[in-house]
Amino acid sequence: MSRVANRPTVSVHKFSSCDGCQLAFLNMGEGLIDLAQQVEIVHFAEAGMVAPERATDITFVEGSVSTPEDQERIQQIRQRSGLLITIGACATSGGIQALRNLQGEDWRASLYATPETIASLATSTPISDHVKVDLELWGCPIRSEQLLPLLHDLLHGVQPGKMEEPLCQSCKRSGVICTVVSQGKPCMGPVTRGGCGAVCPRMGRDCYGCSGPIDHPNRAALERCLEGLGLLPDTIQRRFKMIHATQFGGDHRREKA
Ligand code: SF4
Ligand code: SF4
Description:
By secondary structure, the chain is α/β, with parallel strands linked by helices. Helices cover 33% and strands 11% of the residues. The longest helix has 12 residues, at 68-79. Residues 167, 192, 196, 198-200, 207-211 line the site of one iron/sulfur cluster.
């Protein structure tokens, strides 16, 4: 952490992903200008700075490891990084593309006419399956409001806290009326980590779990609750497999690459 004290260097690297989490940086607006004065951003292709080989004090990684090239590149990036921070569902859990990890047969053959030409791994896996990760920011996508306090802490030598409480506690703390209780909507809040400010329940809609599971999700209890709301077994399983396809426990544990 001491390396981040004086105008640290920062890079943002992309792996298999949609670029949405990188947009959280650009969406900071004036905050980004502020940040650029406090750090030296050396590689962030989406913002126009391209120097992927440079070593940096703080490295943000978006996206999952899903190709042989990804496997090699993440090792090199780890060696050149002080702190390595993963951002978003793809980097922290493999993302939607990890649905392929649940396929028995080779998914390439069902999508491509010449699957042998597709250089892709059979699985999509989080960065932490491959290298040491110092911090994780969950969400799909992450929000600028998550990045700013994290960067503020890092620049002032403070160890950022880990978000461990379930989303339901965010609702309670903010006075948001529970969508399950008031509207009978199948909310994933009881097993989802907080940190997003309960954006969806605030708007009267149920959470679909984009911030990923808390450390010890009680999946069985939520399954019983969703069953009580009238959801069919298949629909319930789909709720758990949505964005963090292999992370909510049950019968669908992640396969390692
Ligand atoms: S709306 Fe969802 S997240 Fe909020 S308290 Fe109810 S179940 Fe929990
Ligand atoms: S309420 Fe749930 S689905 Fe909505 S942003 Fe938060 S974690 Fe994601």
